[in-house]
Amino acid sequence: MLKTHNCGELRACDAGSTVTLAGWVHRRRDHGGLMFFDLRDRSGIVQVVCDGSSPPEVREAASTLRPEYVVQVKGRVLRRPEGLENPDLPTGEVEVAAAELTVLNPSRTPVFYINEDSEIDEALRLRYRYLDLRRPRLQRNLILRHRTVKFIRDFLSERGFVEIETPMLIRSTPEGARDYVVPSRLHPGCFYALPQSPQQLKQLLMVAGFERYFQIARCMRDEDQRADRQPEFTQLDLEMSFVDREDVLELVESLFTALVPTVSDRRILQVPFPRLSYQEAIARYGSDKPDLRFGLELVDLTPLAAESSFQIFRQAVAAGGAVKGMRLPGCAGYSRKQIQELTDLAVKNGAKGLVWIARTADEVRSPLSRAVGEGEMQALVQALALEPGDLGLLVADDARVASLVLGALRSELGPRLTALDDRVLAFAWVLDFPLLEWNAEEGRWQAVHHPFTAPLDEDLPYLETDPGRVRAKAYDIVANGYEVGGGSIRIHRREVQERMFRVLGLGDEEARAQFGHLLEAFEFGAPPHGGIAPGIDRLVMLLAGEPNIREVIAFPKTQRAADLMLGAPAPISERQLEELGLLVRVEKRANPA
What we know:
- Helix content is 29%, strand content 24%.
- It has 593 residues and is an alpha+beta fold.
- It has 3 domains: 7-105, CATH 2.40.50.140; 139-274 and 442-554, Bira Bifunctional Protein, Domain 2 (BirA Bifunctional Protein, domain 2), CATH 3.30.930.10; 296-398, GAD-like domain (Gyrase A, domain 2, 2-Layer Sandwich), CATH 3.30.1360.
- The strands form 6 sheets. The chain has an 8-stranded mixed beta sheet with strand order 6-9-10-24-23-22-19-12, with helices on both faces. A 5-stranded mixed barrel has the order 1-2-3-5-4. A 5-stranded antiparallel beta sheet has the order 13-14-17-15-16, with helices on both faces.
- A hairpin with a 4-residue loop joins strand 20 and strand 21.
- Helix 10 crosses helix 12 and helix 13 (494-503) runs antiparallel to helix 14 (508-521).
- The longest helix is centred in the N-terminal third of the chain and has 22 residues, at 136-157.
- The mean pLDDT is 95.
């Protein structure tokens, strides 16, 4: 080793010992005959001093140092003079008097400051990610990620789970997001798909009798990007045999309640985690991943609106829709511009408009005043529980649309109106999702989660006759407005799986072509089984208190799925295309950056 100690581990008890250190120059300060520089490695920073007693060659080498030079230092650990300690550094009581100094590699001037936590354009950070990763914040995040994954592995191994790797090259199957596909040289005209998840493979492991499987799985999906999504991501994939929903929920809740305080300074708001049905989550919060750190619950005003003097309310209810509202405490003084911004956000999320009611100490103001009487207005104020100083927002539309619009407003306004503690994680379970949803564009039913999710036993008779009524044995774990993971009890009987495929519009022959391996496996004694797949990136993002998952991934892509450091995606050579039997037709070449 080129060093005997790590920079960040030296303490007062090491005073008098001789050490050899190696790392990067963090800062350098020259006071004439007295020079200091901070030496940094992954463990932290220690101060190195060169003075008149240092060998001439050490002083000469020290005078040439610049930030990010890689150096080796040999010297004696000294207590800092009294009053000159640095309480901000764990090593602040000591310094190293350099007796030998070797420059292992000089450095160009970095394209951004590594020794300052300043705002840097993200594109520049991603272009020089190897420099960005030297900064303490990202190093802390990736070490947190390591500790999180290690904890998960240990926790599950102690509970009888077996870690098994599954293939990265599989068959492309319908449903879900778009696949990333890989052409086969040995089988011209044929393609592998990169796995969106090991879903079918983990079910086959249950058929194989492993009973408890897990994997820290790499997954790929070709979908539009956002702050909490990447084209390639990591999930904790686990599956269990001979279990029902309660067994999976209990295991994951135990894992998270043990994990959070062990690896972070976060605290969990409530244990056991609250449980909401999907319908309840939409009705109360306008979201299937509600942030429970604040209130702002939705109010159903439909019974009042059915007899309203306001024609838009009455028509919405008559058409089978709903009128829903939400109370914003202390917002009665919002300006016309602020209310227009809320209206624009409501329209962006699907509303035809937004109605407001402001209650002050002296009056109630609303555009509704021209259409409804004082009695109806007071009834709306009472139903919304508006206090003096409050603002009420109302949406009339299809019930689901009205809820989702107000849910979007709630997600936007909740953090503004509530003094949130960023260290709090408000976990909850959302249960009993619909099994299927109607895709009007394609004119068919599609799976809400995936086609292997089992329906609730009592709803199975309606699978063909009333598919929209069928609820799934599915569950999501959510926290702070994010979906952290989703899972379900799976279908394990061939006849039920074939019924599911038919409802999804897959004929028997097509189902056998796409999923014959799974259907056949179910004939060989497949046990009842279920599982879940929490996202590692999103979980660590919450544990680190970061705004997006790129901050907890070593080499992430941009929101346009581009790798700015490696320059990917990129064209391949004509020779490679020829070997693969491919001809590329590009109508307009895009710049992925």
